[in-house]
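Input set for joint prediction.
Command: fold jointly, output tokens.
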Amino acid sequence: MEEGIVTNIQHFSLEDGPGIRTVIFFKGCPFRCKWCANPETQKFHPELGWSRGSCLQCGSCVKKLYKYNISLKNEEVNWGDKTGRAGSIPSQEEVDLACPTKSLHIIGKKYKVSELIDILIEQKPFFDETGGLTLSGGEPLAQPNFAEALLKKAKGNGIRTAIETTSYAQWDVVENIASHIDYYMTDIKVMDSGLHEKWTGLPNQKLLSNIERLLGEFPKVHFRIRTPVIPGVNDNPEAIIAIGKFLKPFENRGELEWELLKYHRLGVPKYEALHREYPMGLVELSQDKFNELKSVASFVFENVI
Amino acid sequence: MAEKILSPQEKRIEANKGQVIFSKGSRVQRIYDSFQGSRSSVDVQRARYFTESFKTTEGQSLVLRWAKALYHVAENIEVIINDDELLVGRVGGQGKYGLIYPELDGCFLQSFAEQAANRVESPFEISDEDIRIIQKEIAPYWDGKTYYEDLARSLPEDVLKITYDPVDTFTSRFIANETSSMRSALQWVHDFGKGIDEGFESIKAEAQEKLSQLNPLDPHDSIDKAEFYEAVIIISDAIILWAQRYSDEARRLADSTKDEKRRQELLEISRIAAKVPRYPAESFYEAMQSQWFIQLFSRLEQKTGATISNGRMDQYLYPYYKKDIEAGKITKDFVKELFQCMWLGMAQYQDLYVSPAGVKFNEGYAHWEAVTVGGVDKNGNDAVNDLTYILLENKREFPLNYPDLAARVHVGSSQEYLEEVATTISDGAGFPKLLNDEEIIPLLLAKGADIASARDYAVSGCTEVRMPNLDTFTTPCAFLNLGAVMELTLRNGRMAKYGDELLTIETGNPADFASYEDFERAFIDQEKFVLKQTFRQQYIANRTRPKHFASPLGSALHALCMENGLDLHSEHIPGGIDLGYFDFIGLASVADSLAAIKKNVYEDKTLNWQQVLSAIDADYEGYEDVRQRLLHSPAYGNNDPYVDEIAKLIDRVGVEFAKENAKYLGVNIDLRYVSQSANVPFGKVVGALPNGRRAGTALSDGSSASQGADINGPTAVLLSNFNTKNTEYINRASRLLNVKLSPSTVAGRDGNAKIIALIRAWCKLKLWHLQFNIINRETLLKAQKNPEQYRSLLVRVAGYSAYFVELSPDLQEDIIQRTEHELSA
Ligand code: SF4
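tokens >
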């Protein structure tokens, strides 16, 4: 049975596809977007995390998990090894026994497809006629066999499927996954590949060509293209218009909309929990500017939300 | 500046600077303005005239005395018609008023009269003259005669000590708390249709006919039944007389007004009040006035739980509506205006509790005279009609808490209906509350109802239901404090608050329990013992109630009472079903406590009993690490079988006990989980609990999770509810279930579809009740101040989720200011 690593499972999700959905956040992503709001989903291996707010500074972790080099200095719990090497961090069980508050926690858990299906079946009454399963992440396409097995089984149990993805993978992987999807959400961040690479770590040719083919070859699948509007990256009319132009030829295919998402800083505490630097610093995007860009977008493309 | 998160209703209120605004200069606005600034005051008229009459009827049968007393009230109570009113009738003076029922708990009146205006919870104004009347005329007569005193005297010592303080029986101990002295019967609904369609002349004729058929040689007939039918005749005359006085007053006012439009209105009111409820109503307006008179007169009769509910208004009023609207005699706007006049009348009435325990159970002045809409009809077909939609629409447009609107839902409920329901929910305060035909109808059948009556149930009180011609009055039952049961287990039959006194049984010192099973068994033993005492208490209450109360009006409207010549308060009525229930308070608090001990002490061994008990003794002062361990253990409300199994066991002990022992009480007595605000006073007497809850704080409420512990969202809350029901037993009643939603969830794109999906799932899971709380700005501010109680509050943005309390203060502020994001808890 296929197995994969998952960051988090979220029920009663109302923003990740139609209806009431259960979102499975995959762990691991080939990109390193500087604005990423889910940094805990970037690495493929389990990690330690620590929440300052609930920590009692009791030092129990330092004592009980001494093997793993945990320290408590200046009211900060930290640990030496962040490589993800096998055995470099304690197990879930060890952490649970050590930390009374769950301040210290393990991010990333292995699941078998069958375990996830059991969880989904329990949630089925809530899906009604519109909701269902959403794969998110992280990047679901980065665990293609796991994702495929999960989607197939879900479909077999009458559960509708959606995905939030970068569309960054070999075409046959993308094609295969898309064939099990009812509702496909994918990002287009910026058309300039150089900028794309600078801000996300990878160029964009592959994902753009995948998206183009998907829009043409999967007429029955509903697509939602998402553009996070990020200060300094694409918060200018030119960048937005460029994306609009890319989508323009598909304007009449139906089942396609383009959603602009306003940059937010809600991921900041998660960086702190992982002892990572937040790469965006203090930038902000004003509501006025966002609204302005949205109207620019609607000028180029009909179905903007 | 970004917009704040407000529900549409909040927005309206904010736009009007905190004032409730109806359409400007409208009739309803003027009526509202006439009372909204007034403080709630005690109106002594009902108690005064009732007592005056009682002084003169000693020795007669109770039902006759009651009818005569109400006749005396009807003759003397002030008749007031205010400007602008279209429906007339009130049972107190001007402004907001509450009534007192000295027969129930008059023993508290002396102190109440002195303290009413200054008490912290729900204060009431009272004039010096009225204080004198209470202290000189009313209270002395009832001294020693009240239901409360009789009950307290009748309880055996071992039951008494977990009910009241044995030294001062006026003080409740909140362990197995009786509630029968707070109201004379459980929540109730009349067959309003009968009153409106037939009128009291016809009911009177029916009683006369019955009288004439009695067997003069059978004293049961010639005395008991004869007195009952005489009482029905007197009560019919009483309500007719009272309505006639309104007719006379309307005519008097019509003669003196210079405003021609108002004169015409008053003449119409005068005509109608002379006609109904005496004769059958023939128009929608007459039906509404008839209903309002009957409803109000019921408040004079007695204090039933939550106040008499309104029943299925979209059903019994529909024929009148249809006839008039088709004939072009009324418009939809007029229909709405009449409804609003009725809601305004309700809003002026305040539910007054005299006893200190009663006040604590029911903080505020709220009453729940539920209006039921939707559901199936007697044949099982969908019952929704135009009036259903008008009532829903009216709830959206009318910004007051009244009426308490309840929508019935069944698997076949139409999309259109649910759309209207969802729109109404998202528009404001989470109303209507929902009741599930798929759970309720089969349960009523299993308890002995015929199919037509079961399908025709009406919501009554906050979550309960009644079948108006089949159900009978039942005695309010005990609220059983599970938190106290846990403490009794930890302290070997004692509670910190009540010192060394052995309150229940000794089940051993926890530190000696070798296994979790030993601990669980001790808890169950305590639970069963308190249940046993509760049922003994109930037995006495059941026996005592009919000696103190009668209900000639309620009986006149009840088919079985009229048929059998028996008052509705009789212990049993042939053909009737007696449905009573007792409450468990704090299910999640104790299930979580058991789970926390199981996990930490017996499985992980991260704590030992010594640590836990010392921490609890110290109310966790200096034991934060212990407390955090316990707090972060498996918790009910997360669809976690580890703890749901435990909660299910606690429930099973309750329903099994009811199944086996209700027969000794001779009534159905079922387990329910509806704490209203009682989880607060019950929590006050309970020390720290092993789920990390501190001493004196609220217990978990209804069938909800411990405060903030449901960190997996509303679907998990619903599933835990589902998982913990013992559906092989029928000895269960309602479970109150609140689900929190943010305005952006419900207002956003597809907001309705999402609410509907949740409603349909709830319907399929066969859960009894569901109400949505709309999270607003206030909730977020509270969460900032008090993070621990709001651990479950999620911040949702597309592709992202995190807990609100984990965000930094500035990000929290950001959330409070934004509207684009998604929040759900
Ligand atoms: S992370 Fe946990 S164990 Fe470590 S100091 Fe904080 S609360 Fe104590």
